[in-house]
Sequence to fold (389 residues):
Amino acid sequence: MTTNGLRRRVAERARELRGELVGLSHRLHAEPEPAFEEHRSAAAITALAERAGFTVERGVGGLPTAFDARIGSGDLVIAYCAEYDALPGLGHACGHNVNGASATGAALALGAVADELGLTVRLIGTPAEEDRGGKAYLIEAGVFDGVGAAMMAHANDRDQVNGDSLAICAWDIAYTGRPAHAAAAPWEGVNALDALTVAQTSLGLLRQQLPRDAVVHGIVTDGGQAANVIPAHTAARYEVRADSLERLHDIRRRVRACFEAGAVATGAELTITPHGHDFAELRQDGELSALYAAAAEELGRTVDRTPCRTASTDMGNVSHLVPAIHPMLGYDTGGARQHTAEFTAAGTSPGADRAVLDGAVAMAWTGVECAARPALRERLLTGVRERSA
Fold:
């Protein structure tokens, strides 16, 4: 069958699955689960994959809510990354219900022609993108070994390709001091809240000297227990972002010094614990991005090809390992951006439902081109061989 014929079959298969894919998106949206707690979400996706003939391995990489679903036996492996974790208190404010459903649709649609294209199609369930970085854990466990190309699309207020993202690290900060009566004998205490205040003041001053792309932000998770007791313990979680992992290493050193200043100034003991994996900056494959953009435009979507910057994603780690794309998949959000209640509310709109299907078809068509274009196929296979060596 010709490439055009295979593309038609892929699109037809996606349309056949429309009800199930939209239903999946709505189900994920209605039952939001935070990082590493996505049991119902993973179960819903894997059940759909099994009904489509995929072989599913659950709990891959030592992560109970991760999975690896496969179909086909070809030498070229195309992987679609399904995200499905939500934000505490906000639900699917980053649109991962759309992300997960579109990746699932792409895998199931391409899987229908996998053998004819000499492909192995994998749907990799990647939990905890919002916190600690499930994809980085799966890379460490070897789950992405042998993958020729990896794809996902991310919910957004407009369609974009050629974007990058910031590298990020996260820390859990704790200061331990000594309690004392805040009025009767404050001099006997070591104030852990003062230590955190000194650190935050230092960070505020440091920001003037940071590069423009550097971002430092965080929350206080423990500020003491009673106003009349010198706080003996405080805690915070902070994130540091930069335009690359290399730049992040330098900025992280300077940010750490601010927290150390709080300990020096007050005498409190400081503990800094990494929170999950570092996220690398996103490096999208130009050829794959162009193929995706052309496919999306063929479906009637308007795609902004201007280089842009998103926040941070553990898909960046995947993109450092294998050729990857992470296009933004748009629908009307009323002007709302991710991580807001308004963005959550738009996640089951007719526009979001169309985005699920269009994203699935565009990514599946990109997978067809990976298999059918000899030079591209050989580039992807050569990359696998070189990484294996």
